[in-house]
């Protein structure tokens, strides 16, 4: 019998689970764990500058590598600062294991120094959480936490560990839990249901594949299967924000992103299709537009690993609770073995061609100022050969990046889709660069969002991470300003980015390279300079100030009621529409 | 603009859950955080090894919301099984209430008479008061409590509904 401290048991179990990188910040209630890390050089600890940065960095690491991200923070403010990242990972289904320190068990509930009810606070923004009161339970809790975080619909799991449990000892040679696991995620679907889905697809005159982050979460194989399924069925493919890259943007069947800032062709095809196959997406309000006008005449098939995503907002005709990769494999097998043939879809494609001809992503070009869309286009053209990993903050720049940067592979696009967390992009880029040391990692940012976790510049400096921050600086919280223009007759309440720092000098003060550009003619050279620099770069790209992001489905409108240009904007909206998100 | 209300149905759900700290908070809090209603909730450890508890929840909502409630309950790691008794068919529902009545003269006699009709038992008596114990369907208890209001009701404690499927099978 070997007695070991809770902290040692924790670190050894993390190593057993394949953890090699932890994003964290020390503090009183995790000192024993930090001491154990000191003595276990196998684990690389990345010291962030704020716990929110740790959680987002772990998300970026997880999303770009497919492995779970691990966070270590102290009790009280350490844990509460990490909550936004935990909630973000919960909505975007990102596997995280978050270790939080807690005051000693005998002090819990006494309002001790740096005490917060972490399990209470995180209960409804995590997939599961634990308060471990005995080091003897720690190893099995950690093992179960990794299983829960990474299987089924992935998500964040929080383990709250009181300080005395880190110090106290227990028998470290306890056998692994052999009890049957209580958490059993869905796998394959039954044959009859899949067969029905295939039959519907094969008989469709106007099918569409509506894909989401679930395809990416299912692993790279699922993205391959999606390509094959699209080929077999001949159906066009659209994707949510979270699913970009699962189907290649260069693929012939690609319609672009759908939803509020999706393409005209994607939204029109969703509206007019006769069979919709939803793969690992969840009919989010940003995707559906007004619900009673959402794809009114289609038969809807929904594959999701999480039963609660099915029929949540849109009633579907054929629900399939399964891993989306497994279900696609079954569909392809049935399609091939039963020799199904797709219908003649030429008429459907002709209609799509008509919608594409609108060229909804066109924007007015300018010679004297950099249009934000142009900046993204050039960034894409000049970096695409390096197959970069792109992270974003939240707002107009995020939507422009989704529209004008094109992804051909999964795990290259890291963005806060569900929670919409400003400040996500730079720490996520740090996490992605830690997990992919040789990749070109670019955070496409706005000048407002970037300030939300700007302190993480120090982290990139410390770990020599050559991340690039490409700021579309229009001196506005652009999306807020755009909504105020569209909905509140241009009353720009608190949306101006006043008192901005000099981003170039800020970069230099952290030992980064700073680049500024406001001339379209010089943009290519400036971007080339950024890519060529072997270290972190902050690029202050001064863009046109009041550009709006189009196309746009206004709040409360249907897919068929897209705004394509600024001149269609009325400046007001009724209360029903205002109240919608 | 006014907030719209939807038509609701009453459903009795029974959940088999791990008997560990935080499970009740997780289930009850999920109802609050997603805007679902809890009319009553009971929970007790029911297995020989104290590993499993049964939670009985009476909730209400439009049918698609009830379906979501069940799916969201099933999504919680410590929840093993959810049965919608209302949907599943014949079942029994029982609730226990303690009803304290005070008074004298005719009211005291009438309280005793009504208790007898409703098969409520006297479990405490003073010269001025009774506590009745009554079990039955929630409707029966509602009616009994309403009657007691007429004859000197002081206070009521109710357990909330416990329910099981009829027949030999597990709920």
The run of helices and strands of chain B is: EHEEHEHEHEEHEE
CATH topology heading of the largest domain in chain B? Alpha-Beta Plaits
- Low-confidence segments of chain A: none
Query: How large is the share of residues in beta strands of chain A?
Result: 15-25%
Distance between the termini of chain B: 44 Å
Give the total of beta strands of chain B. 9
How much of the residues of chain B is beta strand, in percent? 35-45%
Please give the alpha-carbon distance between the first and last residues of chain A: 58 Å
The stretches of 5 or more residues of chain B where confidence is low (pLDDT under 50) are none
**What is the number of E strands of chain A?**
20
Largest sheet of chain B: 5 strands, antiparallel
Query: So how many helices of chain A?
Result: 22
CATH architecture verdict of the largest domain in chain B: 2-Layer Sandwich
Largest sheet of chain A: 6 strands, parallel
CATH superfamily of the largest domain in chain B: ACT domain
- Biggest interface and its residues per chain? A-B, 22 and 20 residues
In CATH terms, the superfamily of the largest domain in chain A is Thiamin diphosphate (ThDP)-binding fold, Pyr/PP domains
Shape descriptor of chain A reads: globular
Report the helical percentage of chain B.
Answer: 25-40%
Number of domains of chain B: 2
How many structural domains does the protein architecture of chain A include?
A: 3
């Amino acid at each position: 019998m070997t007695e070991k401290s809770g902290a040692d048991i924790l670190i050894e179990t993390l190593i057993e689970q394949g953890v090699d990188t932890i994003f964290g910040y020390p503090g009183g209630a995790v000192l024993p764990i930090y001491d154990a890390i000191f003595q276990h050089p196998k684990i690389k600890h990345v010291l962030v500058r704020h716990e929110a940065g740790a959680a987002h960095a772990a998300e970026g690491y997880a999303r770009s590598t497919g492995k779970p991200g691990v966070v270590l923070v102290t009790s009280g403010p350490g844990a509460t600062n990490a909550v936004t990242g935990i909630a973000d990972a919960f909505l975007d289904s990102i596997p995280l294991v978050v270790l939080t320190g807690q005051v000693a068990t005998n002090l819990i509930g006494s309002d001790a120094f740096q005490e917060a009810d972490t399990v209470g606070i995180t209960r409804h923004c995590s997939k599961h959480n634990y308060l471990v009161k005995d080091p003897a339970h720690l190893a099995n809790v950690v093992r179960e936490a990794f299983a829960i975080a990474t299987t089924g619909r992935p998500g964040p799991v929080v383990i709250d560990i009181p300080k005395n449990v880190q110090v106290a000892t227990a028998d470290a040679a306890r056998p692994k839990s052999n009890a049957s696991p209580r958490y059993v995620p869905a796998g394959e679907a039954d044959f009859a249901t899949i067969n029905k889905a295939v039959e519907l697809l094969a008989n469709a005159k106007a099918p569409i594949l509506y894909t989401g982050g679930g395809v990416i979460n299912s692993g790279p194989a699922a993205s391959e299967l999606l390509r094959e399924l699209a080929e077999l069925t001949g159906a066009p493919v659209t994707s949510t924000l979270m699913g970009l890259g699962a189907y290649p943007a260069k693929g012939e069947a690609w319609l672009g992103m759908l939803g509020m800032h999706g393409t005209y062709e994607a939204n029109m095809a969703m509206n007019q299709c006769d069979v919709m196959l939803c793969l690992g997406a969840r009919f989010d309000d940003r995707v559906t537009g007004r619900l009673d006008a959402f794809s009114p005449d289609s038969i809807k098939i929904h594959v999701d690993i999480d039963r609660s995503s099915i029929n949540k907002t849109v009633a579907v005709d054929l629900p399939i609770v399964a891993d989306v990769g497994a279900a696609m494999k079954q569909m392809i097998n049935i399609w091939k073995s039963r020799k199904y043939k797709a219908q003649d879809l030429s008429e459907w494609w002709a209609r799509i061609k008509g919608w594409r001809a609108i060229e909804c992503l066109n924007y007015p070009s300018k010679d004297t100022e950099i249009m934000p869309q142009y900046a993204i286009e050039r960034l894409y053209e000049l970096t695409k050969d390096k197959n970069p990993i792109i992270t974003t903050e939240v707002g107009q720049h995020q939507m422009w990046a989704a529209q004008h940067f094109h992804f051909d592979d999964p795990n290259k696009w890291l963005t806060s889709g569900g929670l919409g967390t400003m400040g996500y992009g730079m720490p996520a880029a740090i996490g992605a660069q830690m997990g992919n040391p040789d990749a070109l990692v670019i955070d496409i940012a706005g000048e407002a969002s970037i300030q939300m976790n700007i302190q993480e510049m120090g982290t990139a400096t410390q770990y020599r991470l050559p991340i690039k921050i490409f700021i579309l600086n229009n001196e506005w919280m652009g999306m807020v300003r755009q909504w105020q223009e569209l909905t509140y007759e241009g009353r720009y309440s608190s949306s101006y980015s006043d008192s901005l720092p000099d981003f170039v000098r800020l970069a230099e003060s952290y030992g980064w390279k700073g680049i500024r550009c406001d001339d379209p003619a010089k943009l290519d050279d400036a971007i080339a300079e950024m890519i060529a620099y072997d270290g972190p770069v902050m690029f202050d790209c001064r863009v046109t100030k009041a550009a709006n992001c189009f196309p746009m489905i206004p709040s409360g409108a249907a897919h068929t009621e897209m705004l394509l240009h600024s001149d269609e904007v009325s400046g007001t909206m009724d209360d029903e529409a205002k109240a919608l998100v | 603009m006014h907030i719209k209300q939807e038509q609701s149905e009453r459903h009795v759900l029974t959940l088999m859950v791990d008997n560990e700290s935080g499970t009740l908070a997780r289930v009850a809090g999920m109802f609050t955080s997603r805007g679902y209603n809890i009319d009553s909730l009971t929970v007790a450890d029911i297995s020989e090894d104290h590993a499993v508890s049964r939670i009985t929840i009476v909730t209400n909502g439009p049918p698609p919301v009830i379906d979501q409630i069940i799916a969201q309950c099933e999504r919680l790691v410590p929840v093993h099984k959810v049965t919608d008794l209302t949907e599943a068919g014949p079942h029994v529902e029982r609730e226990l209430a303690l009803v304290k009545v005070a008074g004298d003269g005719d009211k005291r006699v009438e309280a005793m008479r009504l208790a007898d009709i409703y098969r409520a038992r006297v479990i405490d008596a003073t010269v001025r008061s009774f506590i009745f114990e009554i079990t039955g369907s929630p409707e029966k208890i509602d009616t009994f409590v309403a009657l007691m209001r007429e004859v000197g009701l002081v206070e009521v404690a109710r357990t909330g509904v416990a329910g099981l499927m009829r027949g030999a099978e597990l709920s």
